[in-house]
Amino acid sequence: MSAGFEINLNIDGAKKAVREARKQGLRDAVEYVLTEANKHIPHDEGNLERSGRADVNAEGTRGAVSYDTPYAVKQHEDMSLRHPGKGQGKWLENTMTREADTVREIIGTAIKGAIGD
Question: Which residues are registered as beta bridge partners of 53?
């Protein structure tokens, strides 16, 4: 007795699906980090928070969260500053450290969805 089978693999399609899922997962992850970081950002008039951006490069291999005000770096790095009410120094760095596992999970879940667990 013998049995035969045939396997048809679409490797190129699978690679493309994983690349797109990685890019979407990274986009979702950096948006998540921005949202979480903004919960701890120093707040006076809201300009610093509104300047926040979450970006992913065209290849979907690098993501970044940034803030674009003249005082963003000083507010982040100068631990001698006091932030009455909402906010703390190192808000982005602390968020990245605290949420690293969640970021990995967001990206991993997106990729798993593309390959079908």
Answer: 66
Confidence of residue 57 (pLDDT cuts 50, 70, 90): very high
| pLDDT band with cut points at 50, 70 and 90 for residue 9 | confident
What tokens appear for 96 in the block? Answer: 């990245």
**Which pLDDT band holds residue 117 (cuts at 50, 70, 90)?**
low
Triad 36, 105, 86: Cα angle to 5°: 10
Domain boundary assignment for the chain: 11-115
Q: Which two tokens stand for residue 58?
A: 């065209």
Q: List helix spans (H) across the chain.
A: 11-38, 47-50, 72-77, 91-98, 100-115
